[in-house]
Amino acid sequence: MTRELLNTLFVLTENAVVGLDGEALAIRVDDQPKRTVPLHHLGSVMLFGTAHITGPALAKCAKDGRAVNFMDFAGRFQARVEGPESGNILLRLAQFSAHTDPLRTAQIARCVIAGKLRNQRQNLMRSARDSKKDEDKKYLQAATDAIARLVPMLPEQPDTDSIRGIEGQGSALYFEVFDHMLTVPASEFAFTTRSRRPPRDRVNALLSFLYALLTTDCVAACEGVGLDPQLGYLHVPRPGRPSLALDLMEEFRPVIAERLAITLINRRQIKVEHFDDFEGGAVLLNESGRKTVLSAYQERKKEEIEHPFLKDKAPLGLLPHLQARLLARHLRGDLDHYPPFLSAP
Hints:
about 350 residues; alpha/beta; CATH 3.100.10.20; Four Helix Bundle (Hemerythrin (Met), subunit A); 2 domains; four-stranded mixed β-sheet; 10 helices; about 45% helix; globular
């Protein structure tokens, strides 16, 4: 198998300008040159906050099929610019056909959630093994056992609504003990419940930022295969919502985003000073924090693992692309079911 993990250019500096310089992108800040990146090294560009791109550079990226993503300072997706659509129409027809069949839709959703539950359990078991506190081990093991009891219930669920119910139970059990996977004082990183819009504490701010990055990667993976990222099976389609990309990322939340968040906190690579508090209770990563997390995220994506279904090694960052291809093979009828990614024990 040919392995290729397209690199992404992240531009975080306020008011940075990305321009075109021949076959390269040139980044300037306050009219001073900072960096030049050859275009053939890049698969996409992500601009944060007030960073922006010139018309010629944007046109070149669109012509070459290189997506340009605009994110706010919190890492939330704002907009995406890309060139003409080149997706495979026969694959899209198969994707749409499966969506109109409740049994096919439930089958795909069931596989996705089976993978997510398994990967949540692996996170809990790993933290229980590493924990030095008996109380933490007890809570983590209890949640592990409870989630394990949910998995055999999935085949019994007749439709996607009931499958979502199982997913909700699993996530509730998982996040109830999430703080027991953190080894730093609660005064620095307290976690009680998942909060999103806006994040209400540092752990949630970190998770939301990582989820935003992972969503962008999953959108790119769907589009790279020729699937429509808007038409999902587990997530209900809504205007502007990348439902299929959200389906795809469910099995990667524990493996890539949550495990990285736990590691960054426990190793004190991310600290209190990397966050800003805002009026109304919102907590967000500041520029220094975003740079730290992005650097760690990119390094995490370079780590190689053996894919349990393909029996071949690949970087973690390539996994969404591989899973999108496996989903496409299932939709075409080449695979009887969609094989979710299952992390190693």
